[in-house]
Amino acid sequence: MGTRYSAVFFAEAGLDETAVGAALFAAVDKVDCQMSTWKPDSDLSRLNALPPRQWLAVPEELLTVLDTAMRIGEQSEGAFDIGVGDLVNAWGFGPSGSVPDEHQTRVLEKHLRYSASDALEIDHEHKRVRKRMPIALDLSGIAKGYGVDGLACCLDSFGITRYLVGIDGEMRAKGMKPDGKAWAVAIEKPVPHVREVMGVMELIDAAIATSGDYRHWVDLDGRRHAHTMDPIGRQPACNRLAAVSVVMPSCMLADAWATAFLVLGETAGVELAQKRGMSVLFVLHDGETFQEIVILDGQHQI
Questions:
Q1: Residue 255, annotated ligand binder?
Q2: Contact assessment for residue 154 and residue 11, using Cβ atoms and an 8 Å cutoff
Q3: Distance of alpha carbon 276 from its chain centroid, rounded?
Q4: Secondary structure of the chain in HEC code, one letter for each residue
Q5: Is 141 within any annotated ligand binding site?
Q6: In Å, what is the CA distance from 224 to each residue of 14, 131, 196, 214, 237?
Q7: Among 51, 88, 100, 245, which is 20 to 30 Å from 228 by CA?
Q8: Strand partners, 281
């Protein structure tokens, strides 16, 4: 996935750490091989290359992620949509690595779009999927979180009950440390080119995922455009949000919802988080500083 994964855990003496390490690698490698847009032979790339109306047999893991992505797309009123592969590539964030072209991006903004829910048909019984119409899928906003859940399941299979696993900034914790303390995860200050801690989140049996505008962007027409795409506006998300962190039991869900809230913005995003009873940290640009809005179990914290 072009980044690092990690696992910190406490276990009984005699555990075969080599076997655990190999299993952890296999867990994230499986996700990468199935869901990467950067690997031309991945299952996702093969689906993207396939003409509409042709079925493709795919692994159960990919079916799960596709199904979950479409469900969150509906729940977020279209703010999360994996059918943005064309936008991702046009803005230079895809595997082509092309420099964004102003004409191309403007054409895509006016181009008739299909949501993943409109374009995809999943046959769970036969473990296959097909596109009803041309669409390019991108799982960057959910696959990493699913990979973190895979790391957690891997340690669960070894009987390990105290751990913190992560891929880049997406983390999932189980249990507590032997000293009875929760797992401490740093919340990064959303400032480009620096690594600075803004705060700390303590996790017990929970996952956290963060989306922001401060790590990947392109400059076009004298403006900075972040990598998160607004599926409805057909362009990079543009609002006051600098970062969104979501805490949920599943890192896959937290990952997708962090992306959705970043697209929705500081008003619609906060309202939806409250409506759904979620726990979300919204960090807004406020001149040279930042403003925080904390929603805990749907309640606005002062």
A1: yes
A2: no
A3: 19
A4: CCCCEEEEEECCCCCCHHHHHHHHHHHHHHHHHHHCCCCCCCHHHHHHHCCCCCCEECCHHHHHHHHHHHHHHHHCCCCCCCCCHHHHHHCCCCCCCCCCCHHHHHHHHHCCCCCHHHHEEEECCCCEEEECCCCCCCCCCCHHHHHHHHHHHHHHHCCCCEEEEEECCEEEEECCCCCCCCEEEEEECCCCCCCCEEEEEEECCEEEEEEECCCCEEEECCEEEECCEECCCCEECCCCEEEEEEEECCHHHHHHHHHHHHHHHHHHHHHHHHHCCCEEEEEEEECCEEEEEEEECCEEEC
A5: yes
A6: 52, 33, 21, 10, 11
A7: 51
A8: 245, 294
One-letter amino acid of 97: G
CB 253 within 8 A of CB 280: no
Alpha-carbon gap, residue 172 to 205, rounded angstroms: 7
Residue with tokens 């979180």: 145
Residue-range domains of the chain with CATH:
173-301 (3.10.520.10)
Per-residue pLDDT for the chain (302 aa), expressed as one digit of tens each? 778 999 999 998 999 999 999 999 999 999 999 999 999 999 999 999 999 999 999 999 999 999 999 999 999 999 999 999 888 887 777 776 666 666 555 655 555 577 898 999 999 999 999 999 999 999 999 999 999 999 999 999 999 999 999 998 899 999 999 999 999 999 988 877 778 888 999 999 999 999 987 566 566 666 666 678 888 887 787 889 999 999 999 999 999 999 999 999 999 999 999 999 999 999 998 888 899 999 999 998 86
Round to whole Å and give the CA distance between 148 and 269. Answer: 24
Does the annotation list 85 as a binding residue? Answer: no
Q: What is the pTM of this model?
A: 0.91
- Separation between Cα atoms, residue 62 and residue 127, nearest integer Å: 10
For residue 174, give both structure tokens: 């189980």
